[in-house]
C-alpha cells in the first residue's frame, strides 16, 4: 500500500475528482477527511471510504471562509493528530451566482470576487492552516488542482477562473521553494476536461443525447480522444501523494489526455 496510515484532507472530497481521490487514497491505506459544503454527498463518500476499511471524517467547510478552514484543520488534528496530505480540490466556475461566463469587459465584480475567493484564496487558506503541522513533522504532500485553462486560453471567456487557476501555479512554485527544506512537496495537478458534476449546471436541461454529444466533442479535442474520469485524476494524485514522488516538487502535472496538443488527422 502506497499511503499506509497516512492522513489526508481533501477539500471538495464529496464529489467529482475529490471523491475519486478519497476512494483511491483509502484503497491505499489512507484515512480521509472530506472538507466540503455538500454534506449529503460528503457523507456518501465517507461511507464508501469506511466500506474500504479506512477511517475518515466529514467536515462542513467553505474554503473561502478562513474561520471555517481553521476549524476544519483543528478538528482534523483533534481526531487524527497529524496531516500528511492536503489536496486542494474544491473549486469551480459556476456557483450560486449562476452561469458567469463573461467577457472581461462585462464580468460582474461579485463573480470575479467569488471565483477568485473559492479557487485561489481558499487554496491559500488551506495551505496556510496546514503547513505549520507539516513543518513540525518534517513531512507533507500538498496537491493543488488547477486547470488547463491556467496556461491555455479556452474558447469561452472565463477571465476570473483562468486567473485564479494561474494564480495556483504561482502559489505552488513559491511554496515549493520555501517548504522543500521541511520535506514538504507542493505540486499542481492540472486537469483537462474531466467528466464530473462540475458540468452539471452548464448542461442542465440538456437531453441525454446532447450531454453525450458534448462530452464526445470535448474528448475529440484531446490526443487520447476522450474526456477524463475521476479515476484518471486519482492515479496521478496517488503518485503526488505518495513517496513515489519523493523528489518531485514545484511540478505541474497535466492530466489532460494530451491537450493542448491536438490529435493528428490521418
Ligand atoms: N471537471 C473538469 O473538467 C475540470 C477541469 C479543470 C479543472 N477542474 C478543477 O478541478 C477541481 C475539481 O473539480 P470537479 O470536476 O471534481 O468539480 P465538482 O463540481 O464535481 O466537485 C467540486 C466539489 O467541491 C465542492 N466545493 C465547491 N465549492 C466549495 C467551497 N467553497 N468549499 C468547499 N467545497 C466546495 C463541491 O461541493 C464539490 O463536492 C476544481 O478545482 C475544478 O475547478 C475541473
List keywords for this structure.
single chain; 266 residues; alpha/beta; binds nicotinamide-adenine-dinucleotide
Low-confidence stretches: none
The sequence of SSEs as H and E is EHEHEHEHEHEHHE
Examine the secondary-structure arrangement and name the CATH architecture: 3-Layer(aba) Sandwich
Multimer state: single chain
The biggest sheet, with number of strands, parallel, antiparallel or mixed sense and barrel status, is: 7 strands, parallel
Radius of gyration, rounded?
18 Å
Q: Considering DSSP H and I runs of 4 or more, what fraction of the residues is helical?
A: 40-55%
Strand content: 5-15%
Number of helices: 7
Q: What is the terminal-to-terminal distance?
A: 42 Å
What would you say this structure looks like, in words?
- With 266 residues, the chain is an alpha/beta fold.
- It has a single domain (7-196, 230-255), classed as 3-Layer(aba) Sandwich (Rossmann fold), CATH 3.40.50.720.
- It has seven helices and seven strands, in the order βαβαβαβαβαβααβ.
- Helix 1 links the parallel strand 1 and strand 2 (31-36).
- Helix 1 (16-27) packs parallel to helix 2.
- The N and C termini lie far apart (42 Å).
- 45% of the residues are buried.
- The mean pLDDT is 95.
- Nicotinamide-adenine-dinucleotide is lined by residues 11-12, 14-18, 36-38, 41, 61-64, 89-92, 118, 122, 145, 147, 191, 193-194, 196-198.
- Nicotinamide-adenine-dinucleotide (NAD) is lined by residues 11-12, 14-18, 36-38, 41, 61-64, 89-92, 118, 122, 145, 147, 191, 193-194, 196-198.
Amino acid at each position: 500500500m502506497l499511503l499506509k496510515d497516512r492522513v489526508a484532507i481533501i477539500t471538495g472530497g464529496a464529489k467529482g475528482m475529490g471523491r475519486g481521490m478519497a476512494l483511491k487514497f483509502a484503497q491505499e491505506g489512507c484515512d480521509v477527511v472530506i472538507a466540503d459544503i455538500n454534506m449529503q454527498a460528503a457523507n456518501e463518500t465517507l461511507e464508501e471510504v469506511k466500506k474500504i476499511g479506512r477511517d475518515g471524517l466529514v467536515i462542513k467547510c467553505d474554503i473561502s471562509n478562513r474561520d471555517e478552514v481553521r476549524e476544519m484543520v483543528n478538528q482534523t488534528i483533534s481526531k487524527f493528530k497529524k496531516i500528511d496530505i492536503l489536496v486542494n480540490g474544491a473549486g469551480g466556475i459556476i456557483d450560486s451566482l449562476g452561469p458567469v461566463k463573461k467577457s472581461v469587459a462585462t464580468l460582474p465584480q461579485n463573480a470575479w470576487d467569488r471565483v477568485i475567493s473559492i479557487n485561489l484564496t481558499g487554496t491559500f487558506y488551506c495551505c496556510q492552516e496546514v503547513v505549520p503541522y507539516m513543518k513540525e513533522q518534517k513531512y507533507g504532500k500538498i496537491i493543488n488542482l488547477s486547470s488547463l485553462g491556467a496556461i491555455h486560453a479556452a474558447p469561452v471567456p472565463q477571465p476570473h477562473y483562468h486567473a485564479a487557476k494561474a494564480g495556483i501555479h504561482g502559489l505552488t512554485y513559491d511554496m515549493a521553494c520555501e517548504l522543500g527544506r521541511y520535506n514538504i512537496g507542493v505540486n499542481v495537478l492540472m486537469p483537462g476536461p474531466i467528466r464530473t458534476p462540475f458540468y452539471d449546471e452548464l448542461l442542465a436541461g440538456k437531453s441525454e443525447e446532447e450531454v453525450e454529444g458534448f462530452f464526445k466533442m470535448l474528448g475529440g479535442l484531446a490526443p487520447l480522444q476522450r474526456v477524463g474520469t475521476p479515476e484518471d485524476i486519482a492515479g496521478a494524485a496517488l503518485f503526488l501523494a505518495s513517496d513515489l514522488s519523493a523528489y518531485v516538487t514545484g511540478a505541474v502535472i497535466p492530466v489532460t489526455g494530451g491537450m493542448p496538443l491536438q490529435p493528428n488527422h490521418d
